[in-house]
Amino acid sequence: MNFYKVVLDDKIIDVLENPAWVKQSKNGLIVLCEVSEAIGIVSSNSETILHIEGKPPFSNVEYQDVILADITEDEAEELKVLLNLGADITDSDENVEWTEDEVIEEPIEEDATLAEVKERHLEKLSNDCQNTIYSGINVTLADGTVRHFDLEIEDQLNLLTLSTLVATGETSIPYHASDELCTYYSVEDILKIIDTATVFKTYHTSYYNSLKNWVMSMDSIAEVGNVVYGVEIPPEYCSEVLLELMQKLSAEGVVNETAE
């Protein structure tokens, strides 16, 4: 297995694993070839042909000159993570900047780079958590029908209002499922909607906090980049609340449904 970084104007723009090598045929077509014949490569997203600096030029084809450099598999994994997180990487182990942020004038140390990756990745995981909560819940009502209820901020506020109505003694409460007209729900159904929503939100909030605890313990960029929302967290990094919720939901047979 061979790994390469692709450098354009002193910036690392791509990482390749066993790249597709290309040359130009006599009739001008770009065709795949062996490495010994290659004058270019295909980008990792298969959308761009890049010319290898120092090789014979392509004829009648616009191209960019790039430099290929051998790297280790560990280096490749770290660079992939940085590029996926939006890093603008100078071809130096000491200079990593972020395209969407203010330019960092001073080189940052390796530990600081890991800290940056953790911060960026946790921001993504936090958004995943929020979107999961917003996506809502399915609730089986007293009559056996299943309704879906969104849990965006406005919906969460609505549920607080419903709990107030229940507390005042209302017995027939107007509300609506996702993309449905408003209808009357019994107190039993409203309480089940509220309880299911509360457990769902608490679970995912606790899950993210434990996920953050795990990520912060990691000591390599590649390890951080491999963490995705929904992955099983080692028990030693889980909060007491999360462990209790997982046990409760597992006993009720709904842990997988709630975790989605």
Could you please describe the fold and organization of this structure?
- It is a single chain.
- This protein is α+β, with helices and mostly antiparallel strands.
- The protein has two domains: 3-108, no CATH class; 131-259.
- The protein contains seven helices and 13 strands.
- The protein has helices at residues 73-84, 110-135, 153-167, 187-216, 221-225, 240-252, 255-259, and strands at 3-8, 11-17, 21-24, 30-32, 40-42, 49-52, 65-71, 87-90, 96-98, 137-140, 146-149, 172-175, 183-186.
- The strands form three sheets. A nine-stranded mixed beta sheet has the order 4-3-5-6-7-1-2-8-9. A two-stranded antiparallel sheet has the order 10-11. Strands 12-13 form a two-stranded antiparallel ribbon.
- A hairpin with a 6-residue loop joins strand 5 (40-42) and strand 6 (49-52).
- The longest helix has 30 residues, at 187-216.
- The radius of gyration is 26 Å and the shape is elongated.
- Residues 100-111 and 255-260 have low confidence and may be disordered.
